[in-house]
Amino acid sequence: MSAPRFRFAPSPTGIFHIGGARTALMNWALAKRLGGTFVLRIEDTDEARNRPEWTEGIIDALAWIGISRDDPTFEGPYFQSAYADQHVAAAQRLFDAGHAYYCDMTSDEIQQRAAAEGTQGYGGWSRDRGLGPGPGRVLRFRVPAGTTVVHDAVRGEVTFDNAVIEDFVLLRGNGSPMFLLANVVDDLTMGITHVIRAEEHLPNTPKQQMIWEALGHAVPQWAHVPVLVNEQRKKISKRRDKVALESFRAEGYVAEAMVNYLMTLGWSPRGGEEIVPWQVVEDEFRLEDVNLSPAFFDLKKLAAFNAEYLRRMTPEQFADAAEPWLEQWRAAHPDCAWDQHRFLTMVPVIQPRVSTLAEAPGVVDFLFLPHPQFDEASLAKALATDEAAGIVADSIAAFTTCDWTCDAINAAFAAVAEQHGLKLGKAQAPVRVAVSGRMVGPPLFESLEVLGRDETLRRLRALPDGVRVP
Q: What is residue 50's predicted lDDT score, i.e. its pLDDT?
């Protein structure tokens, strides 16, 4: 028995959709586990919308989620436009065998006759006219009587009544092949044994199965996985929802988290654990275990997955992964005093506080800027109290003499808070805002230790003169 061959066949007409990424991963997981081949076919026959950069975007996005051309399992990319001759030749074989016929009826003529007969759509009126090819004539498939049973690895047996499937077009009036024909012929040419795709393609499947059988070939294993929906349980759409894989990558989601999360949409690993390494996914994924219900693409849950993957990194791994976003921040702040050692010192307190790598610079930016960037709301809340000025003044005195370690700073400030009859957390607000410019941030005393005694005191002393206290 020959090794199975799976395919992923996107069109290069726009962004790389997360639904497509999930489908690609399912094909990839099975190809890897079963010792098969993953074929990338670019369906580029829509010349008006295709762009070379979209093709490169597909290849780059696949590589980001681990589907790489460097892997021996990967084959391609192939381009559908290169097989136009095979598409037309297959149409001719179908015509010669009596499975297809030519029709010269226009859309208006079809609508008029259907209205006159009280029916809808094309009624097979050219079936027995014996027409040959000619200008403006389409080639239609002769749908047989009876039913078509699609054996689907996810959905079981799905039966279609052929009586409600009109004789569909194989070749347009200009002789160019329709998608249904080209898709089947490409799969035949490339020896595809498994067609795994979203359930939105299921209505096309009986037509494609008819073509496979009419051309004398056994049909592939079909599998139609559930669509992704948003929080309103509507099918996600690039016009309405955030669906571009590239945008998640740009925002600092890591590939491992994205892959892990996408594979849990409609399927789950055994044992109840959702966050698992790819090898577990590859070992355990089965089409028969895929849920039939639409899968909710939950942005909050994706962020939680990503945060967990970030927390599991070593400080060095986190710093390396965050470097593109840190580099962007440094470029936008040429006056910053960046110090990689200081950043690495802060990484353990950054990791629990971010969901994406893009958030990392914003957590610790105040440590490297010459002056804190004050948030007006934080100023109003933290400094417009009766205790604020006294806390700042007493903190200056305490920080001038205490040892400059996190524990010593904590102890010195605890005495200041007690002196003012405040709990430690509430007393911190004026100092935190004076030093960082905002109310929320990483642990204060760890931050002050990294910032240094001199800079901490300078910012505290500068506050009354440098900032208008409400």
A: 67
Q: What pLDDT is recorded for position 267?
A: 97
pTM: 0.91
Strands 156-161 and 100-103, by their bridges, are: unpaired
Could you give the 3-state DSSP secondary structure of residue 300?
helix
Which neighbouring-strand residues pair with 295?
228
Distance CA 170, CA 175 (A): 9
Residue tagged 């027995």 (tokens): 128
| pLDDT (0 to 100) of residue 1 | 61
207, 234, 235, 238: which is the annotated catalytic residue?
238
Residue with tokens 């347009």: 172
For residue 221, the number of C-alpha atoms closer than 13 Å in the C-beta half-sphere is 14
pLDDT, residue 2, reads: 83
Q: Is 238 assigned a catalytic role?
A: yes
What pLDDT shows up at residue 29? 98
What are residue 152's phi and psi, to 5 degrees?
-110, 130
Pairing of strands 156-161, 169-171: unpaired
Could you give the CA distance from residue 410 to residue 229 in angstroms, rounded to a whole number? 48
Q: Using an 8 Å Cβ cutoff, are 159 and 148 in contact?
A: yes
Q: Rounded distance, CA 449 to CA 31, Å?
A: 52
- Torsional class of 156: left (φ above 0), alpha (ψ -120 to 50), beta (otherwise): left
Q: With a cut of 70, which residues of the chain have pLDDT below it?
A: 1, 48-50, 464-470
In angstroms, the CA 76 to CA 79 distance is: 9
What is the pLDDT at residue 136?
Answer: 94
